[in-house]
Amino acid sequence: MNEFRKKAFLKKFPFLGNEYFSSFDPDYIRVKRIDRELLLKTPYRYEHDGSLGETSYGQRVHLILKGNEVTEKVTPGGHSSSNYAYTPTKEWEGERVIDFIYRKGINPSDVKAIVVVEWDYYCWEGSHDNRDSKGIVVYLPKEDIGEMISALEKRAEIEVRNEIESC
Question: pLDDT (tens digit, 9 = 90+) per residue, 141-157?
Answer without folding.
Answer: 877 788 888 888 898 89
